[in-house]
Design brief:
The complex is a heterodimer of chains A (495) and B (984). Chain A is mainly alpha-helical. In chain A, 51% of the residues lie in helices and 0% in strands. The termini of chain B are close together. Classes of the chains: A mainly alpha (495), B alpha/beta (984).
């Protein structure tokens, strides 16, 4: 099996560019991709050929749609002899080595990327694949009863009807216990929801050549969606209404989830109490015992002062900040379950100041092939492809914000200092939504600099520190901390 | 040591310097009265007090519920392989502005060029830069004066229609036998030259006229007559033991200053056990930096130079036993010089900055007699940056006025501003059928042209250069064009109907004509930026002696004048006026006069007295009103005024600053002279205040500058610096001495090498995001520069000795500023840096008060966002030039030199990640990097092998005010002059 993956890796032209280090990472990533496809790629198996094709061939070949890694297979049965095809599928390498002219030609035409061998398949299985290829026809366009291209200019009644359907105020014709809004939230939330929000849906729908809502409601395109939409058989008319609603929603935008301002209310309450106490103390004089006024005022001032101090301390500190991201990207799936190395995506960590948010093409290295995710189906992954098509990069929300007057270099910490990512970022591999793990305060930096030991003997740079080496040798000190090499100097971080 | 140094005439004569802030407080009142009155006038009451209370409660309430802003992180869609966000890349390219050449590296951060550094691979400029080169990156982001699209008669147009109309008209004019003139600045690009030839072939009738407002016609014409080649030879100042310069400011502005400075510094170098020092004598009118560095400086009137040259020729000819010319002057300095020159025959060099071909012929004759040709003057690799011959322009203006020019294409020239007869040019341009200007920025001439087809900024362009024969270099874009601009070369190609762009033309030209090699060589050359053909073998040149006698005859016949003579010069920042709109350069104090934001008439004390004027008065010179400045060392009976100021249509910074004195230039004997003996000089009743940084931090006569003469130095190397050893002995302390266990950074500055050229000042400004504050603030002593060039005069006021001393934070190990800071915002790092934490600073300014060197600067305003400081730091486009690695300081904090700690940290990190020790010389602060004479050395004192450690052990090394036990970590090496006395 291992051999296969290595070959697969070679097939990916972008992988070889990324240098040596990510190679292992990529291998691991591809390993999961294979299982992924093997597990999830099988659509309702009607016949064996289709099943086998989707399991074994679809990674590199397309049927009607041009060349992928390997050549287009539509019409291959007319171009080549079936027996030859069978032989080629079983072991193309042998044929090339043997000098079969057609095989060599195919090999050379496809950038000399060898095809996998399929010695594990029986003759019958291979033949069923060839049959499937031969008989394959593009799917017929479904005929819809409504204007599926309409994206704007819906009538008011249509929008209203769509809104009611969406929010579950009126039931669907063909049943379905929950309404759209139960999964596709229409206000921002801070909890994890893998389903696309109403805004996401509206965006995707309104985009030029965007989501075909009729088609995807008719035949869900991923396992996740199939499962969740199993009980919903919406009529074209209902989808039309919902489309009308989404069009309207797109213009209005998402309502913000309001958080009750506890602190402000406490502040105002005590301000009010203190004012009343003052008024009573000076003018109305209803309460006889003046110590009551005093207590109210003292407590009030105390609360205010406490609020001010706590707020001032946490001003611009954002520990536990976990904002919604434009893509429901899960570090748990990528770094945790699939064990992708952090540095594969955050590739500038070792030599740059910033670890680097991966550019779209890095995502596509894998997601060219992995088209469906386990939590969110195809919808979220599609956003990468949509960005690629529209040329507009994805605008992620920064989680870790260091003040502008602080200089911080990942290269210094990760590469020179050999600090693990988790030390500052926490167990990112366990986070679906990344949240800020450390408070990134100066005290936190300094604490670490005081205690962390420097890799003093191994890094040749430190050979300049003659006096410290002498002290080490004489046993005056047993190790060197960051502090001892100037880790607490202002100008380490501020200039 | 008895020498008295002084910084200004006021100081020398113990006069009180007028305090311009004084008059703010009326007489008979003190400050407290004023404040009381002011308060009484303000409607403050209990009500207001309560309002403020309510306001502060409201703010607290808002603060308690405020949210942090959401910040976006937007990655690339497809990350280019060579770009790493947050990391700089360097691209090699070439700077050429029409007169000055520099091979440079451009530091590009996230797609934005932010800093220019010298390219050490270049054998011409050897990594040195000038202030103007350093500042050129700022003009890229000048969104106001750069054109954003092509224009036709003041209205926006598009490239396609402009091209169609111009090429049609070119064809008609050319077909009708009309003349089309390409009026260009000096062009040193071989590819462009070839393209112009092709253009000429495509359109018969095309003629190129090279125009340079400050040309070298005199030398070119003299050499054409003397040697048969109109070139500027290579002057090898490093090989000369005696250098005599007649008003050639070769360290500042003459021909190729970066190259000459490096060579000159080599001949003045006394480190590494060197014992030889060249002898340099300068005859000049105004005091230049070259004159300041000279061992002997003789102030002369411009009209006297001819006589001096004749005298020198005669005396040397007599020694050589050759026929003499008509007698010239009888100056004793010349007699002494002739003797010295004759002694160092073949190892001497005489140069002249005059534009009179006859004087240059005499200089050639003198050098010939001294057998310098082939020794200190080389003709193998002549300088090609100056090609303009003045009479061609003269002829053109005549033809324009006669109506015989069909089309005029202006390429990097602005004659309406810098031609000496602007009216003649304006009336001429009106008679030209079609006029096109390629200038990227608006200028005076464009008011009269039909089409403006703006070119790219040089940092956006492809180009090449051959500054000296056989020395090639390439220019490549470092950013995509910001506006809809196009290279002039591409316009020519379009009009000729040539396919492709200039890049492919250039590449093709290089691969076939210059490199004669393939893609790989092209790429490696582009990466390094320079390419050098093998130097041709030395060819002996022979002087055409027949022309010497007529030249001498003409010189002796030239009239002597007794009237006041006006000498026009280029200063270091403005040059010929092309860069006047650059605020960095505008605020760069002239190293000699220490004045910025104006040009002025320099007069000697005596001349001023004779004219009845004093500093602050305004003179009327031929109708131009110029403020008076009393310049020690100015030749009697002369007035020097800088060119390059007085623009009227050049941009927000340049317009209305100073006076345009080009109209004072005169045309004589086929060349333009930056000289006028017939000007009418009158006094006016106007007063004018110049912004000077002269009295900032006067050193009160303490032994700040230490200097000696060669004779004493050879006897004992610590001559003039005896105090150092004495003070070193006294450095004792009760406290435990700090140990620097890792690095201990230090800097050494060789006063012998420093020429005061100020490249370091602008390099520092660019690197450290230093704001420009404007004339008014400079007058309030609020200039922000972290490094300044202190200038001291010594001796006779009529002809003082001048010393330049670059001064930045001295990073004292026992810093007086540190222990007075109440919040410990400034303290000492474990590597010996005096560090400044801006976020901690509360602006008490105690440190400024306590710093004996006066190097700390206070931020009075939020310069980066303040519309009142409209000097290219206050809008989104120009802020792109800021260095992201250096904080843009807030209002109310103190700042100062950090020894470029960001560069130190960068290189340390690089060494760590590459698992190797730090190399000596790897870290270069911006000032050291840009210095053309490599006067500044930075390094680690804890490394005994480092250059800075070696220099600190040099007997010439001393520290400023070391008697205060501040223990500075900046050392200076005493200045050694090869003085006539040679004994102090």
């Amino acid at each position: 099996m291992i051999k296969k993956y290595i070959q697969l890796q070679n097939m990916n032209p972008t992988a070889s560019k990324s240098g040596l280090r990510p190679a292992g990472v990529l291998l691991a990533a591809l390993l999961t991709i294979i299982f992924f496809i093997a597990d999830t790629g099988i659509a309702n198996a009607q016949n064996e050929g289709k099943q086998l094709f989707e399991k074994n061939c679809i990674v590199c070949h397309k049927l009607g749609g041009g060349k992928l890694v390997g050549p287009e297979l539509l019409g291959v049965t007319q171009r080549r002899d079936k027996a030859w095809i069978a032989k080629f599928i079983r072991n193309s390498k042998e044929m090339i080595d043997a000098g079969d002219p057609v095989a060599v030609k195919v090999y050379e035409e496809n950038s000399k990327i060898p095809m996998l061998t399929f010695t594990n398949l029986s003759d019958a299985e291979i033949n069923s694949i060839i049959d499937y290829i031969e008989k394959w026809e593009p799917e017929k366009e479904k005929v819809f009863t409504v204007d599926i291209n309409k994206k704007e200019g819906f009538a008011k009644t249509e929008i209203l009807r769509g809104e009611r359907l969406y929010y579950g105020l009126i039931p669907f014709e063909n049943g379905g216990t929950k309404s759209c809004v139960s999964c596709h939230n229409a206000i921002t939330t801070d909890s994890l929801n893998w389903s696309p929000s109403a805004m996401d849906l509206a965006d995707a729908f309104m985009e030029k050549d965007g989501m075909n809502i009729y088609k995807s409601m008719g035949e869900p395109n991923s396992d996740v969606m199939k499962k969740s939409h199993a009980e919903y058989k919406l009529t074209d008319q209902e989808v039309f209404y919902i489309a009308a609603f989404l069009s309207e929603f797109h213009q209005e935008g998402m309502t913000k989830h309001k958080i009750f301002p506890v602190k402000l209310m406490t502040f105002l309450l005590f301000a009010l109490l203190m004012t009343l106490a003052l008024i009573d103390l000076i003018f109305t004089k209803k309460i006889k015992y003046k110590f009551i006024h005093l207590i109210v005022i003292i407590v009030g001032l105390g609360v205010h002062f406490n609020l001010a101090v706590v707020e001032a301390q946490s001003l611009s500190r954002t520990k536990d900040y976990a904002p919604d991201q434009p893509i429901k990207f899960s570090h748990k799936v990528h770094a945790g379950d699939n064990k992708t190395d952090c540095k594969y995506c955050h590739s500038t960590t070792e030599y740059g100041k910033s670890a680097g948010i991966p550019s779209n093409n890095v995502c596509l290295n894998c997601h060219k092939v992995v088209l469906s995710g386990r939590n969110s189906g195809k919808f979220e992954i599609n956003k990468i492809h949509r960005a690629d098509k529209s040329g507009k990069p994805i605008e992620w929300v920064r989680v870790h914000n260091l003040a502008d007057h602080v200089f911080f270099s990942h290269a210094q910490h990760v590469n020179a200092g050999k600090v693990e990512c988790e030390k500052c970022h926490g167990d990112v591999a366990g986070m679906d939504i990344v949240k800020q793990f450390s408070d990134l305060s100066m005290g936190w930096c300094i604490d670490c600099h005081r205690t962390t030991k420097v890799n003093f003997k191994d890094n040749k740079y430190y050979s300049n520190y003659l006096k410290l080496h002498e002290e080490l040798k004489s046993g005056k000190i047993d190790s060197v901390t960051v502090e001892q090499i100037g880790g607490l100097d202002c100008m380490k971080c501020h200039y | 040591m008895e020498k008295k140094y002084w910084k200004s005439t006021e100081e020398l004569n113990n006069q009180v310097v007028p305090d311009y802030n004084e008059n703010l407080i009326p007489e008979g009142k003190n400050l407290l009265d004023l404040i009381d009155e002011e308060i009484a006038q303000k409607p403050s009451s209990r009500r207001n007090f309560l309002k403020f209370c309510g306001f502060s409660f409201a703010t607290a309430a808002i603060a308690s519920s405020c949210e942090n802003p959401v910040k976006k992180a937007i990655p690339y869609l497809n990350k280019p392989e060579d770009v790493t966000p947050g990391m700089a890349s360097h691209y090699a390219t070439s700077y050429f502005d029409g007169s000055e050449y520099n091979s440079i590296l451009v530091k590009v951060r996230d797609g934005r060029p932010i800093k220019i550094e010298g390219n050490t691979l270049s054998d011409v400029t050897k990594g040195g830069t000038t202030a103007r080169v350093q500042a050129s990156v700022l003009s890229l982001y000048d969104g106001l004066s750069r054109h954003k699209s092509p224009m036709k008669k003041g209205a926006d147009t598009n490239w396609a229609s402009a091209d169609a109309e111009i090429s049609a008209s070119l064809r008609t004019i050319s077909a009708a036998g009309g003349t089309i003139v390409l009026l260009t600045s000096n062009i040193i690009s071989p590819a462009t030259k070839k393209l112009i030839e092709e253009f000429k072939a495509a359109f018969p009738g095309v003629r190129q006229v090279v125009y340079d407002p400050v040309s070298a016609s005199g030398i070119l014409m003299a050499n054409r007559d003397c040697y048969g080649q109109a070139v500027i030879p290579d002057y090898l100042f490093d090989k000369a033991e005696v250098i005599a310069s007649f008003s050639a400011d070769f360290l500042g502005t003459w021909l190729s200053p970066v190259e000459y400075t490096a060579r000159y510094a080599q001949s003045r170098n006394l480190t590494n056990g060197e014992k030889k020092l060249s002898y340099h004598i300068q005859f000049e009118t105004g005091l230049t930096i070259t004159g300041s560095k000279a061992d002997k400086r003789v102030p002369v009137k411009p009209s006297e130079e001819a006589g001096l040259l004749l005298q020198l020729y005669n005396e040397i000819a007599a020694k050589a036993g050759q026929a003499t010319a008509p007698a010239g002057a009888t100056h004793e300095a010349i007699t002494a010089l002739a003797g010295r020159l004759w002694e160092s025959k073949g190892k001497s060099l005489v140069v002249s900055g005059s534009n009179d071909p006859n004087q240059q012929i005499m200089v050639n004759a003198i050098n010939q007699l001294l057998e310098n040709n082939g020794a200190t003057i080389g003709f193998e690799t002549p300088l090609l940056t100056r090609q303009a011959i003045d009479n061609e322009m003269e002829e053109l203006v005549g033809q324009m006025n006669a109506g015989s020019i069909g089309e005029l294409i202006l390429w990097n020239v602005n004659p309406v501003y810098d031609y000496y007869k602007p009216e003649a040019f304006i009336s001429g341009i009106g008679k030209v059928k079609l006029t096109v200007s390629f200038n990227p920025v608006m200028d005076e001439t464009q008011e009269y042209v039909d089409y403006i087809l703006p070119s790219h900024h040089f940092l956006e362009s492809w180009d090449d250069a051959e500054p000296k024969r056989g020395f090639f270099s390439l220019s490549q874009p470092t950013i995509r064009p910001l506006f809809s601009t196009r290279q002039p070369q591409e316009s020519l190609m379009k009009w000729m109907g040539k396919e492709g762009d200039y890049y492919s033309y250039l590449k093709n030209f290089w691969m076939t004509d210059i490199l004669k090699a393939g893609e790989t060589e092209w790429k490696t050359t582009l990466q390094g930026g320079v390419f050098q053909k093998e130097t041709p073998a030395a060819t002996a040149v022979t002087l055409n002696t027949a022309i010497v006698a007529p030249a001498a005859q003409a010189l002796s016949a030239s009239k002597k004048s007794d009237s006041i003579e006006i000498s026009l010069y280029q200063n270091l920042s403005m040059g010929n006026g092309m860069h006047t709109n650059n605020p960095w350069l505008m605020e760069l104090p002239d190293p000699v006069s220490k004045i910025c934001w104006d040009n002025f008439a320099s007069l000697s004390q005596e001349t001023a007295k004779a004219l009845g004027v004093t500093a602050g008065n305004v003179l009327n010179i031929n109708g131009l009103e110029v403020p008076v400045f009393l310049q020690p060392g100015q030749a009697g009976g002369t007035i020097s005024i800088a060119l390059g100021y007085g623009h009227t249509r050049f941009g927000k910074v340049a317009d209305g600053v100073g006076v345009n004195v080009y109209p004072l230039a005169t045309y004589e004997n086929g060349t333009l002279r930056l000289y006028n003996a017939a000007a009418k000089v009158e006094m006016t009743d106007r007063e004018y205040q110049l912004a000077t940084t002269q009295m900032h931090g006067s050193m009160e006569g303490r032994p700040i500058v230490r200097e000696t003469v060669l004779g004493s130095y050879l006897e004992s190397p610590d001559a003039g610096n005896e105090l150092h050893a004495e003070f070193e002995k006294k450095h004792v302390t009760l406290y435990k001495e700090t140990e620097y266990k890792g690095h201990h950074w230090a800097m050494a500055i060789d006063l012998n090498a420093c020429t005061g050229c100020s490249a370091c000042v602008i390099a520092c400004q660019a690197e450290n995001n230093i704001p420009v504050v404007g004339k008014e603030e400079v007058m309030k002593t609020r200039i922000m520069h972290w490094i300044r060039i202190d200038r001291y005069y010594a001796g006779d006021e009529k002809n003082p000795e001048v010393v330049f001393q670059p001064l930045m934070c001295q990073h004292c190990d026992n810093a007086p500023c540190e222990n007075v800071c109440p919040v410990s915002a400034t303290n000492h790092s474990s590597e010996g840096l005096n560090q400044m934490a801006y976020n901690r600073c509360i602006g008490t300014k105690y440190c400024i008060n306590n710093c004996p060197y006066k190097v700390r600067r206070f931020n009075w305003f939020r310069y980066a966002t303040n519309q009142k400081f409209d000097y290219n730091m206050n809008d989104d486009l120009s802020r792109m030039v800021l260095n992201p690695d250096v904080t843009v300081r807030e209002r109310g904090v103190v700042e100062k030199c950090s020894l470029c700690v960001q560069r130190i940290q960068e290189k340390k990190l690089l060494a760590k990640t590459e698992n190797r020790p730090l190399q000596d010389g790897e870290i270069l602060p911006a000032c050291a990097q840009g210095c053309p004479s490599k006067a500044i050395v930075f390094g680690d004192l804890n490394d005994p092998q480092s250059r800075v450690s070696q220099l600190f052990k040099d007997p010439r090394n001393y520290h400023l005010l070391e008697e205060l036990h501040t223990l500075p970590k900046v050392g200076y090496l005493t200045l050694v002059r090869n003085s006539d006395e040679n004994k102090a």
